[in-house]
Inverse folding.
């Protein structure tokens, strides 16, 4: 374990004092912790979720693409923060004290009774409101062969699901949680995986929902992971959260508040811990964190930018959204983020944070938290050359910068 003490040099230069812990218990704990760090860093590159939990940083797409026969859009209802309760008719608990450690939150899609000739559905799409705007770029999902999701229906609803404009046959959903796997080659057509705007679709019609229906979804993801996602940059998730009833006004429960938050001090310490052990896996994941720091520094949010100093110096926000560090597309108004900007952490609360409906968390900055990124730079440079990864990183007296040298 590294015990960091500074300065130790006669001229005040930074050095690192190392104490080797000897007991098996200490060594076991250290290795377990660093293995967990590797799992946290790798999580965004080894999964591609469409829905995991409300406000999860691992999400891709927005449930904004409502479609249906004329005058029928008001017959579909979505709740992305449902807490599963099998004893409630619509499947969602109203108990403010509930804590779901199994499913977290789930997504409820409910259909009113469909009258003759009517149909309705929703596309989870990228970018938001793509069905109306028809702008932006779609995901490159090449490498994916199936979509997997957990699902149940309190009333045995019958629905279709789809990807990229291609659908399944109608499926009757059981009342208990079931994992369904849909091969993309089993859909009604072959989606163009190089440019997918509709990542998941759910719909029904009068023939299959004359009395309406309710469906709960969880853990919607693609498998295998798209090739393009395997090099994605992102900070490791800082907190494990569970399912709580989302609040629209203060007080906001911690499990809602911290859902996607990752702080720069946690990422900075994670990088140091991985470099200290220095396995090939550790170094690879340390580089992901450092590259993400570099990306965040140079692609601040247009909607909530940090001010720069008179000399042009810039800094990092105290917190970011975990998962992909960058916005995939330019946000729809009133949001101001541009494609490539950092994604900032926050939570959904339509009343508390109107008009966007999204409350930002730790979007400010402090010198103390930025110091952890600077310490990472000094930590890398202080390691023996044989222990350094294939990177060289350093900071000057103005912007914090990391520069990679793979020569």
């Amino acid at each position: 374990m590294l015990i960091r003490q500074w300065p130790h040099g006669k001229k005040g230069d930074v050095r690192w004092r190392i104490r080797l812990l000897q007991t098996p218990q200490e060594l076991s704990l250290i290795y377990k912790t660093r293995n967990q760090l590797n799992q946290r860093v790798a999580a965004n590159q080894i999964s591609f979720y469409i829905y995991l939990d409300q406000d999860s940083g691992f999400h891709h797409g927005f449930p904004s693409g409502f479609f249906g026969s004329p005058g029928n859009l008001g017959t579909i209802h979505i709740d992305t923060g449902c807490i599963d309760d099998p004893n409630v008719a619509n499947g969602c608990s109203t108990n403010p004290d509930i804590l779901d450690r199994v499913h977290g939150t789930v997504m409820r899609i409910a259909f009113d009774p469909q009258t003759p000739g009517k149909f309705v559905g929703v596309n989870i799409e990228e970018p938001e409101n793509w069905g109306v705007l028809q702008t932006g770029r779609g995901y490159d999902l090449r490498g994916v062969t199936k979509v997997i999701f957990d699902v149940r229906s309190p009333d045995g609803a019958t629905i279709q699901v789809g990807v990229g404009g291609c659908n399944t046959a109608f499926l009757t959903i059981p009342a208990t949680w079931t994992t369904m796997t849909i091969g993309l080659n089993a859909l009604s057509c072959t989606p163009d995986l190089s440019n997918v705007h509709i990542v998941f679709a759910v719909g029904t019609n009068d023939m299959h929902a004359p009395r309406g229906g309710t469906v709960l979804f969880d853990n919607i993801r693609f498998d295998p992971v798209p090739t393009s996602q395997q090099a994605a940059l992102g900070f490791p998730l800082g907190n494990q959260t569970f399912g709580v009833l989302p609040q629209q006004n203060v007080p906001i429960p911690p499990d809602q508040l911290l859902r996607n938050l990752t702080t720069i001090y946690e990422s900075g310490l994670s990088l140091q811990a991985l470099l200290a052990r220095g396995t090939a896996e550790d170094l690879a994941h340390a580089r992901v964190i450092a590259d993400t720091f570099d990306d965040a520094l140079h692609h601040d949010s247009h909607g909530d930018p940090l001010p720069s100093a008179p000399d042009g110096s810039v800094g990092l926000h105290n917190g970011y959204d975990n998962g992909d560090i960058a916005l995939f597309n330019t946000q729809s108004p009133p949001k101001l983020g541009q494609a490539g900007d950092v994604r900032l952490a926050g939570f959904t609360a339509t009343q508390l944070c109107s008009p966007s409906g999204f409350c930002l968390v730790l979007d400010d900055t402090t010198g103390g938290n930025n110091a952890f990124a600077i310490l990472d730079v000094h930590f890398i440079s202080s390691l023996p050359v044989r222990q350094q990864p294939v990177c060289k990183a350093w900071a000057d007296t103005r912007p914090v910068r990391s520069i990679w040298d793979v020569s």
